[in-house]
Amino acid sequence: MINILYIEDDQEIRDIVRNALLKKGYNVIHLNSGNDYQQYIDDIHIIVLDVMLPGLDGFTIGQKIKSVKKDIPIIYLTALTAIEDKIKGLENADDYMTKPFDPRELIIRIEKLLVRFEKVSEHFFRVKHLDVDLDTNQIINNETKEEVILTGIQYKILSYLLKNHNQILTKEQIYNYVWQDNYIEGDKVVNVHIKYLRERIEKDPKKPTIIETIRGLGYRIKL
């Protein structure tokens, strides 16, 4: 589970960001100011930080954190748009994002920093309620915290779709990869194993949201 320390005193913005992060399966620790950040710093993977805060300002907080924890990535999320502020922020942080903003962009920036700082592997995928780590071959339901167990074939299909995410893979491509054999047109074996795989990973296998069926073409996982 990735722990995000989020320091923001604006309630409306806080709720927007917090809800977006929770939906992606992150654990969010929120503070209204930076006065108590020290007690959380050892368990944090990344920090999202406002600048204009009560008490210590965000620039000071970022500088203090980086002086003792250089391996924790920091993203400033602030209304300060002047180039001087951006330069000052980037002197002691790893990214700088201005308000107004789209939470989807913030999440992408967070994910990039987590990979860059090796907090997660580039072979780690978060798709809906699943956290899939292809390095450890582990699949965790990030809502229930339970491990999802698949058969060897089911795991091969899922990993192949993830490695080629956002691409439509034909039944022939999947068959060739998983069974290392030539596909025979009309063979239903891929369909059957996709059905069983969905029963293991989808909340509602009859209305799948993880593995899409693209009629007449094949299957896809969108991230």
TrEMBL record:
Limits of the Response regulatory domain: 3-114
GO terms classed as biological process: regulation of DNA-templated transcription
This protein's record includes keyword Magnesium: no
DNA-binding region residue numbers: 122-223
One MF annotation (Gene Ontology) recorded for this entry: transcription cis-regulatory region binding
Annotated ranges, domain OmpR/PhoB-type: 122-223
Lineage of source species: Bacteria, Bacillati, Bacillota, Bacilli, Bacillales
Name of the protein described by the UniProt record: Response regulator
GO cellular component, one term: cytosol
Cited SUPFAM superfamilies: CheY-like
Native source species: Gracilibacillus thailandensis
Membrane-spanning residues: none
SMART domains: REC, Trans_reg_C
Sequence positions bearing 4-aspartylphosphate: 50
Keywords carried by this UniProt record: DNA-binding, Phosphoprotein, Transcription, Transcription regulation, Two-component regulatory system
Taxonomic superkingdom: Bacteria
